[in-house]
Specification:
4 copies of one chain form a homotetramer. The first copy, chain A, is 28% helix and 23% strand. Chain A has 12 helices and 14 strands. A 6-stranded parallel beta sheet of chain A has the order 3-2-1-4-5-6, sandwiched between helices. In chain A, helix 4 links the parallel strand 5 and strand 6. Chains C and D meet through strand 7, strand 10, strand 11 and helix 10 of C and strand 7, strand 10, strand 11 and helix 10 of D.
Chain lengths: 348, 348, 348, 348
């Protein structure tokens, strides 16, 4: 495992997602956030002046005085994290890839490109094979992490892959931090449920099938399971809770499935990646768990929790799963993706 | 329609549910809450002294000075509403029926008795035929309303009965007022989702099939659809939101289903019962509705709202439905049940 | 009292405050919202198309199809309510006054003009005498209602005017609806207290002294009491709660003060104005009241509640007061102002 | 500084406060929670079986299997922390002191005993001199920490002691975790403010004067300042926010006071006690801070934050202060108290 220090950049460093990236990189044993890039407007200012820090952990030492630079492709380190808003991420990320950067992105724009890995390191590390195929397009690379709800769902589903997943019906109860800043007005969120999040259901339905799919000639072949997602916003700060029912093709007992959840592990664990949780999936036996306020933060937000596994009267089995949407579902996901690439020698 | 005034009693008048009954009866054109019955401990006290009023509408005029009486069968009016806790409701309600009372109950104890109507007046008014069959047991009668989540669900499903309901998967996001008082500790509820409510899923799964079932020789024959419910508690005060997916046996377009929602009406509407909403089911076109804070109170909490009808990738169709859990799902439901019985001449 | 119907206009009809005005005017016995005025952009559109209705009461019948018109001075009825944002209200309201309109405004821009009444009808109806003095400036008039926290505070203080108010220290805990829409991001508001609201403390400190002041030669002479306000935002939807300590110059017992709260009434009550609550100030004896969720809606939101009157160890007395910020503190306040003007023959 | 390991006991180990103590002691460099004591009922059971863990940090390793023992004086280590409920703490703590234990208590029962230190290590470490005087009563000792709101307030006030504190008016906005478990029903807390907490105002008013008082012949002489507290419960999980106005006898500029906040430090810092924050009082310059969700957790919840220092129109100065009520205001306070006693050689 590499021990050297690797300079990294953060595109969109002054936004809320950028802050989450910098929080995730604070004290990181490998990555040094050496290049904070943002729009022209912020360029040249101290980071502390260019942003309004909104997290409940203070800014890392030294960060306040770093100078924000304009996001110009070709400048900055080879490895850049993209915390860009989807409105601009598509073109900017492409320009960075064309300039030779390895772009590890949290934005949705390139996720469905068949040649771009939609990576969850415990689930589909083999999808990194797609990176080599991008070289016909650009000297760099783009690797993405999924939508925040999708990461959580696919971690739980991946544990059950051996049972021939046929269908998955998921109802999400999503935290407001998933909507960015300013995001959902408090007048809408307080004491309320909003049974709609624009574009979210479509993302969950397609991204989950790509993640669980396999690398084929022309990119990733989607997994064949049917997926239906109902997305809801609830007055929770951090942590997406998901009620899941599945149909499977292989007969199984509760013990079989439970054992599969317990046994789930992946390359981040065997490679001991810095951000990898010891236990990527944690089954909780208490009848009323997982709960976002109590469980979203396990192993610094990188563990996905599962509970309430029981038969379903309509499909075959049902359970609840939960994960930290801005850590495992966003910045932590991207950093783990980059760690996996480093460990595989893909970042020279 | 009867215009005379009918004295009614309320069993458990000092509890939270009792308060909701008295709130529902305030200014009622037919029913006079003449008899407030509670445990021995409260007997003989002024109502205002025997209870801590917790509702956001003030106590009705005159109520404060009414004297609470012990809940002795045979005393009090013929028609009594039961706001009793399930711990004691079973025996007490039976004793009242044996003493000749018509007990209109919100408690769960007798709901699954095949000779007891589990009544939603818009959905299964014909189940009142069971009352006559109770006369072999006792001179009085017991009529129940469903669990709060179930009322909402079955109102929406009843509109689609013509399409041969085969399966229903519902995920509820339930308000804290559904847990009574003191109910859920705020330490658990604030900024959190609790993915479990004891006994709730089983109630929804069986009660919905009884309500949509048909009266047969030996009581109600359950409807044949499969039902799976995931129950969650969310930090909302009033209003249960439900994400529903259904499988149907009759091919249908979105317009067919939408028209069925729009056309839904029932005996409470044709009989113009005092508590009946003009529109028992209201479809909302806005993409992010219904929402509990905005929609639970429609038509004084008696209208169930529906929205987001769209195809489901796993079953056939999906939608969101919402209702006021302490009104349409509890006290208002019971009062409407009693109104229907009066209108049908069952309360002499 | 006039019985005829008076056409009124609403400036800024499509915004959140405009919706609250229209909600307040729904079914009003005197006022007909005949003219819905908004910016050029909205002009010519159906009201339902020009706005996103965000209230928990449905739009009044007929409102959806009314056509929004551009806010051009001289058009529309003589009496116009201003629901305009402070960014534009100053100039537009002046232009309407110059064109002869009577502008009853909720905006802050003209509140501190010495010739403009800052009116709370129960507290300072005599300040309407200022209107006549505006005629040197413009043929119309501008009358304002105070900031939402200030209305509540001054209603409670006005009851104690006879005790020689010397100082008032108030700490507000304000609902998010007071911040308009989108207002406070839910990421900031959920499970949090924000101990700052821009400009709020200054408004409370000066406006309360103007309201309790007296009409003098050169406009209103401020009341001499010292006022200090700490403003906080709390995760409440509607209802501002205020913890108040006061110093008074006239020795008093608790019974004296309590009697003053109970006796408080005003011209809206004696004139039986349509929006006037029977009891403008309601003292609640329960030790833990008033509470926003339970008490903000009393008498359709027009009653201010008070409780916990007790000696203060630093000043003389302390108590809690509470009012509905978007009703008594905004649209309801303005409508009551207009009703008072009509009753006094100031709107011909 | 001692390096040896000191066995400690926890009285009331299975309750919510007991959990907070054990959480605070997890990984403690000095203290080993060797003795978990609870009521007879829990005695003999595994800790994991005797309690329902409610914190968002998992139980420390090994804790689950420790056996709970009955709280019998004379057994267990010399140093015991009391997490007992006030209903029973008075007698039990006395019995432990009589049996020779050093009882470091979070309960309120002995706080106002003139011979018992009401200790905030940064504020009044000299009050530990009282312990020697307890020896006429019992061979052990009782040392208490203040009410959660009072700790926060006195930390901020202590910084300003040099300016001759004359009066303090404080309005608290307190988190629900301060009410224990089950504590405040969610039906009361959600979207609401409860302007009353039984006994809280009295505790703040008297305890603050004892803490800032001085050791005299007959125990602690109360500080002479007048204190008035308004206590409110708000829908926040952790962190008490306090709006404070003070009168001082020494003329000061804002810079003087600000410098005093910045300079504040104490024995825990000079002794480098394990639980001591580097900065016990942190002034935040942002105009809208401190906020409980963002700032309560600073330095693991042991730092009290201050902000918004500005002149007060009624008293002299006003500011906002905030602290973590279950850490700095309870278990963390007690552990810091014990650390100070160890460092001073009072625990042999």
């Amino acid at each position: 495992m590499t021990q050297r220090r690797i300079d990294v950049g953060v595109l969109g460093a002054t936004g809320m997602v950028g802050q989450q990236f910098l929080n995730q990189l604070a004290g990181h044993p490998w990555f040094v956030p050496a290049w904070l890039a943002a729009s022209e407007r912020s360029g040249g200012r101290r980071y502390a002046d260019a942003t309004t820090w909104r997290l409940d952990t203070p800014m890392a030492d030294g960060l306040a005085d770093q100078v924000v630079e304009p996001a110009v492709p070709g400048r900055g380190p080879r490895l850049v994290f993209s915390a860009l808003d989807a409105k601009v991420a598509g073109e900017i990320e492409q320009a960075f890839a064309e300039a030779g950067h390895i772009v590890v992105s949290n934005a949705r724009n390139h996720r469905l490109d068949p040649m771009v890995p939609l990576l969850v390191p415990e689930v589909n590390p083999d999808h990194l094979a797609l990176v080599a195929r991008q070289h016909g397009r650009w000297p760099g690379a783009i690797v993405t992490n999924p939508n925040c709800s999708t990461v959580v769902l696919t971690m739980a589903l991946a544990a059950l892959r051996g049972f021939d997943l046929r269908a998955c019906l998921v109802v999400t109860m999503q935290a407001v931090s998933g909507a960015g800043y300013p995001g959902v007005p408090s007048f809408d969120a307080l004491g309320n449920v909003i049974p709609f999040i624009a574009g979210e259901e479509e993302k969950i339905e397609i991204e989950s099938r790509k993640i669980l799919g396999s690398v084929a000639e022309e990119g990733v072949a989607l997994h064949g399971m049917r997926v239906s997602a109902h997305a809801n916003r609830v007055p929770v700060v951090d942590g997406h809770t998901e009620a899941v029912s599945i149909a499977i093709g292989v007969p199984a007992t509760r013990e079989d499935l439970r054992a599969a959840f317990d046994a789930f592990t992946g390359e981040p664990q065997s490679l001991r990646l810095p951000s990898a949780p010891l236990q990527p999936l944690l089954y909780l036996d208490a009848p009323n768990r997982p709960q976002p306020r109590l469980d979203a933060g396990r192993e610094r937000g990188m563990t996905v929790t599962v509970g309430r596994l029981r038969p379903c009267g309509v499909l075959d089995w049902r359970f609840v799963t939960l994960g930290h949407n801005t850590v495992r579902g966003a910045a932590g996901a991207a950093v783990l993706n980059a760690e996996l690439m480093v460990a595989k020698g893909m970042v020279e």
